[in-house]
Amino acid sequence: MSTPNGTAPEGRTAWKKTAAVAVPAVLAVGALAAAMAQGALAASFAVSGSNFQVASGKLTSAGLASYVHTDRDADDRGHPVALLGIGKADLTDICQAARVETPVGTVVFKLTAGGDAGPVRADSLVIDGEDLVGDARFGTAQIGRDAGTLDAVPGVKGPRGKFGLQAGTIEVAGVKSHAWSATGGNFRLKGLRVSVSLDGRTCF
Which residues form the signal peptide (predicted)? Predict the structure, then answer.
């Protein structure tokens, strides 16, 4: 029902106009979610001014892709990293910790999950790390492959002509890394615990 001038009466919704605005927004959100699930948006955001620790007792995955990348912070400072794309990650546990300056002193922001609560899982996990320490086993490794042709992890592909590596499977025990960002689709964190404390311990 409409008024003589064609506008919706007070208290009514002009559904055609609403749909014209809402549909593109819904499609955009859907595309964004799909890209995040594929890891395609890794490092597309400004990272914070400091790195953080990532640790796990054991990480296994079907699919690994890696190449050199540069993360940038809000001041456009570059931070060179090894981008590690992990297809379907299973971790026995996970710990992430960062030291954060506050008006009351330096605090430790810490996130832990897994362990006795069960494994941590993530699809298309992407870690932009300065380093990675652990005892590793790669299956079907291809080292020196053109980064623009990587296909082991959907959505994780580097600049054409640059150095890259990938593997069909990966297993790393005693994972320790200093990272600038970590993203993943369908993160499942059993036994999640987040804490902030002045006297807190980091992951390692």
Answer: 1-42
pTM of the model: 0.74
The label of the residue with tokens 């959907």 reads 154
Matching residue, tokens 């980091």: 202
Give the side-chain half-sphere CA count within 13 A for 48: 11
Q: Are 64 and 85 in contact (CB under 8 A)?
A: yes
Q: Compute the distance between CA of residue 203 and CA of residue 198 in angstroms, rounded to an integer.
A: 15
Token pair for 33: 């979610």
C-alpha 193/C-alpha 190 separation (Å) is 9
| pLDDT per residue as tens digits for the range 71-84 | 999 999 999 999 99
Structure tokens at 11: 């208290």
Model pLDDT for residues 159-184, shown as the tens digit of each residue:
999 999 999 999 999 999 999 999 88
